[in-house]
Amino acid sequence: MKELKIFGIVAAFTLILYWGVEPFAHSQMHKHVEGDDLKYSDLKPLTVKGDAKRGESLAMACIGCHSIDVKNMPAPMDAVAAAQSFGVNPPDLSLAGKLLDEKFFAHFLLNPAEVTKSKHFAMPPSASSEQDAADIVAYFKSIAPKEVTPKEGYVFACGRCHANRYDKWTQIGDVPKTKSNIKTGVDLDALEFKKKLGTYQNKLADYMGKLPPDLSIIYRARSEHFLETFIEDPQSQLPGTAMPRVGLNHEGLEKVMAYLESTGDPSKPKREAIGPKVLGFFVIFAFLAFLWKKSIWKGHH
Amino acid sequence: MANNKKGRRDFMGMVLGGYTALGGLGALYAMKRTWDPLPSVKAAGFTTLNIDDYKENELVVEKWRGKPVFVLRQSPATIEKLKKEKPEDLKRLIKVGDAHFTICVGLCTHLGCIPAFRPETQDFLCACHGGVYDITAEVTKAPPPRGLDIPPFRIDGKKIVLGEKGPEYEKMLADGITMPV
Amino acid sequence: MAHFDENARPFSHQWLNERLAIDTLKRVLSTEYWIPKNINFLWAMGMVLAATFGLLLVSGIFLLMYYQPNTELAFDSVNYTIMTEVGYGWLWRHIHGVGASVVFLVIYIHMFTGIYYGSYKRGRELIWLSGMLLFVTFSAEAFSGYMLPWGQMSYWAGMVITNLFSGGSLHADALVEWIRGDYVPGQAFLNRFFMLHVLLLPLVIIGLIVLHFGTLRIPHVNNQEGEELDFEKEAALYKEGKIRESKVIPFNPVFLSKDVFVLGIYFIFFFYLVFYHFEFAMDPVNFDPADPLKTPPHIYPEWYFLWSYEILRPFPTDPGLVAFGIAQVIFFLLPFLDKSPNVAPAHKRGLFKYWFWALLIDMIVLTFMGKLPPEGIWSVIGLIAAIFFFVLWIALPIITKKEKKL
Predict the structure, then answer these.
(1) What pLDDT was estimated at residue C1?
(2) Which of A 8-27 lie inside 8 A of C, CB atoms?
(3) What are phi and psi of B108, to 5 degrees?
(4) Which terminus of chain A has fewer CB atoms gathered within 10 Å of its CB, N or C?
């Protein structure tokens, strides 16, 4: 019994220590930001219903800058040329209707700079009335594919500014497989790609103020809560940041987070599979050790 | 230690020891896995050859899985000669359309040195221990136990992908022309 | 002159005995290495530490197989190669990271056990001193290891801690550059701390562990009441079969069986942390790659250094460094500052009882404040706690001198 009392004291001090240096210290260091559950409450609800048919013809204006892969409509420029014109490569719009919040998307078309909270946003207002905006949104909802992979979600929402080197993703696409010259070891195709990427990144850094960070392992560098509230509204966590509000809906956020987890914390499934086995092993070990101790100490007290 | 308890002590001690050894085996398995080649090493184990890049009778050394791979496009004259003198060796050649290739890992099957191609005698000589291979890399003089190994390959139009196993390669394996590398 | 029986079968018991004296070794080191019976589970912390050191060593070996001590490659070799590609690489890393943190928890428990029961007093000073040397070397080992992933915390901890050696207004900048091998922590710095972490310091630690065990052999382990035992008499009793009356037990198997049981409980806790609660030991900020042009908004050492960090922080540079320097060595002086001849648990020692708990709580307060931002009330509490720390150590000889002899 005396041992249990001593154990209780040791455990209590350990827990107090833990509470002080972890939960308490972090609660004091980082201000808590309450999310809005992706409601985008600052934007007025839409008053009109969109008409996808009408939206289709309005959306033809988009392909002046954007591609729509699901409709086999290519972009007018490649990523590097686009960055040279706009500072960043405009996204392919195939997934816009699926991953963006409907209300956000419509308001975004009316006034991109204000809605993204990003002063120098490259895209000009692209709908002249709420009805037009709602129609375009309805059109993109109608053409969106049923299934989206986490990576596609990431590429659409983040991938043109943020690389992910652990998945070999760059702002202008996957790192291509190239081959070096067997005699000299020089890989011209790889150098060519590096040059293109460098040109793109320089333009992007000019546009954003700095090169947006690689997100390979951001999942472990920031808490899940931070990432979710930051993606929902970057200004809430980092006032003054150049990152625009992207306006993801729940599905969009889920895809992005799943992708970040897959590159940032890939061992999670393995941990979860092996953890219970290892703990079970040591529970039985401790039990057997207890029996051994009991048999050895017999007659000592 | 009073002797009357010894039996039981030993029993529990042995149970605990045996159980611990079991856990040790699990740890050893994890350690073994840590020594395994990395997935990126394994994924990098593919090399694509474009057959138009190779001229007849000119040996090119490519790299596959970090090993040198000999690629030698045989001339029609060589093929004719082989048909007459060593028809068995024809089985060692990889046919892509009309072209015949000798493709093999350029490491001597004796102890792993790189044999040198001798255009004048149309054979390969391994300088380390004097092994000689003919133009299809079949061994003609000991100590090498067998001809140079043919890497797994798959023919894809005008391309040969090293590292993937196509039906032609499977057949070579089945016929005992080469050993798995 | 040794006698070697020519008929002894090679590797038989007799053959080995003649060459290695295995029976004597076994007797001296295990079956007749006497431990007091009146002990509790805190006496198993030495074994727990040895086991944790073993886990750190084994996991470290496997990390070493893939780690690249290069400022360009280090971060990704840890976070990509080891965490993603290497089979069970993540397991070694989590064991290593959690082990490095938990080992200090156990060291502190071990130390405060020693302080509470007076296990540093007459006859046992060298146990305490060799233990303190181990503590300092473990601290250096932890710090050098913290550099290796080359994240933001690695870099800026390297910057700040090496700057301590400039000696404040002494401006020994040349010394700082000499330690770094560069003007800032760079390639030379990473390489030499890698060497320290994987070779020199582990060698020193292993040597000190042997010394620490050696210092125990003659004074023997203390017991719960601080009672001075006649080990020869008690051992004779035990060997006669009077195991109930004897106040001692042999290390093997009696003490060992208790150690192993405590180890079992400890491993449940340890691996729970490894699989489900490792974040506390792997600071998120260190998952941002080192950036020499940007300091993270909050920097703080790992929790086990916080109390001494907080002794540095509330003072101006020079007094702060002096205070920090004293805090690093003051525990070495414990056997000499405690003037009381009593070897007894703190609860029987009058004022010392309060001194013990005051020290423990003060260090916990310092630890809390060391992590909090140095602003407002936290700075004030930190300053008071730091001053109180020194007051306690000044008071120690006075209150122990007055202590009544038991």
Answers:
(1) 54
(2) 10, 13-14, 16-18, 20-22, 24-25
(3) -55, 135
(4) N
